[in-house]
Amino acid sequence: MKYHLKTLGCAKNTVDSWRMESALRSSGHIPSFDKQDADLLLVNTCGFIDEASQESLDAIRDLDSNRGKNQQLWVAGCLTQIASERVKKEIPGVDHTFGAEEWDSIAMELGPSEESYDIPAATMPGASVSAYLKISDGCDRPCTFCIIPKIKGRMKSDDQQRLLAEARMHAYAGAKELVLIAQDTTAFGEDNKDKDGLAHLLEALSEAVPEVPWIRLMYAYPGKVTPKLAETMSILPNIVPYVDMPLQHGSDATLRRMKRPSLRKANQSLELLTNAMPEIALRTTFIVGFPGETESEFLELLDFIKEWKFDHIGAFSYSPQRGTPAFEHEGSVDSAVVADRFSRLMTLAQDISSSRTKDLVGERVEVLIESEEPGENADGDLISIGRSFRDAPEVDGMAFVKGVFKPGEIVPTVVKGALPYDLLCYPASD
User: What's the CATH number of domain 364-427, 2.60.120.560, 2.40.30.20, 3.30.2010.10, 2.40.50.140?
Assistant: First the structure.
């Protein structure tokens, strides 16, 4: 049977879809990029916030309205984990629903293909220069704005040996970067009473895939960076000095309503990382307009940003999510005020990012090439596109390198110019 899979949401959902495809392919089913040619239309949904839920519903509805007479429509993932009946009610044409992490159940329900062939269960389609490695699922943190614990349940660390095997598979397929993701990567091992579980995993990964030059850490939790983790990152040759740590706000009053760690704990984690790795690039995200946010609290957030001068900042306007404690909070912030604060924050973030990239002009920077085909600049020069270690895939800036290089090459360059988020580079002469 041929299936067409549509994935919505974050990188963690992308990994879930890879595993879903692995189970389907192991049963002999064949992917189809052409949805019209597929026997089964499969959607891996997101339900993190109302906007994401609506996007998932719109995608399902579109597939339903345009599918052929004999095509099945199955829906899985976060949205159906918490709102399966809503999906069935709004889109009666859906033939089957599954919750999150039920990729094996999907394959079992579909059964083996008459054209079954043997593919190792660990095989993940879509291997590329950069690959995601999801190290755990679920979350134990009590954030009042987040529905994930209800969707995913308690945090469960993945088996380390399975993760090492998955990493080796990505390395064999040609990946030059592994991006570690989870709801909370720093919680890895906590369910097994190992407070330094993430540090131990990084040590094992560094040894298992020495041919992968970049291993990157995303979704760290403030207050959970241990001295061992900071030290481990600083000494292992293929752990890049980069951390994504969503801090959510810079006011203790707001953080208390969010049930997030205090600024003291956030500062402690940031200081451990920057002291161990002075060259580290820091990414974070903030929520603007959380219920009860005053102008004074927002100004505290801006002051916090000015103090740390984060390399990369993402921001979201607060979106109420049914089923979360914050949904019942009083003190909603006027939408015009939220929009104004969002604009002010992002203007500051851009100014800081621009300053950080300009500081790199004249410096040597290694660039991981991602582009399959070179482009051209305004002068007609051929340009290859990639990223420095300071930039994570999909969310941060790019590096434009003069010349033609293959995807997966790591090119030593000199930064000749800078845009607010991107670098203009020439190959280093020596």
Answer: 2.40.50.140
What distance in Å separates the CA atoms of residue 288 and residue 340, rounded to the nearest whole number? Answer: 10
**Residue 220 buriedness (CB in 10 A; 0-12 / 13-18 / 19+):** buried
pLDDT at 430 over 70: no
Q: Are 210 and 167 in contact (CB under 8 A)?
A: no
pLDDT score of 217: 97
pLDDT of residue 4: 87
- Look up the pTM and report it: 0.81
Mean pLDDT lowest for which of 21-30, 279-288, 358-367? 21-30
Enter the CATH code of domain 130-358.
Answer: 3.80.30.20
pLDDT tens sequence across 135-189: 999 999 999 999 888 888 999 999 999 999 999 999 998 999 999 999 999 999 9
The tokens for 24 are 């389907």
**CA dist 357 → 277, 282, 306, 417 (Å):** 18, 13, 16, 9
> What is the rounded average pLDDT of the residues 350-356?
94
What's the CATH superfamily of 2-110?
Methylthiotransferase, N-terminal domain (3.40.50.12160)
Q: Cβ-count burial of 44 within 10 angstroms (0-12 exposed, 13-18 middle, 19+ buried)?
A: buried
What's the whole-number mean pLDDT along residues 118-129?
47
Contacts of 144 (CB under 8 A, 6+ apart): 257, 258, 259, 324, 325, 326, 329
